[in-house]
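Technical note accompanying the year-one report. For the benefit of new consortium partners, we illustrate the data format agreed upon in the data management plan: each record pairs a sequence with a structure-token string. No post-processing was applied to the example shown here.
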Amino acid sequence: MVALSNADLAQLVDMFGEGRLAWHGVLSAESVKTYKPDPSVYRLALDTLGREAQRTLMVAAHPWDLRAAAGQGMRTAFVSRAGEGVPAPHDRFDVYAESLTDLSEQLTSGGTQH
């Protein structure tokens, strides 16, 4: 599990440290000197991690973020979070979840909700 954020690296280290979040890695858009939804931010993640887009799941509460990731060939999981936006009627994400717990349950059971 790797975080991909528009925040700078110092902010991310502070935020994740305070929240006691366990990540395998943290990537910041500052590395490519632009911000999501610019395609180079998603390429940063794929290239840095050596992953194929089709075998990578982008998880976000922002539909715009998932649309951009899908545009780079990534699979997508929308996790509902109050105040963060709702998918548009035309959005087609691979997984829709009510929470991170729900997402985890869907992914481990092999089922997805559309």
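Partners are asked to follow this layout when depositing records. Residues 39-49 form the longest helix (11 residues).
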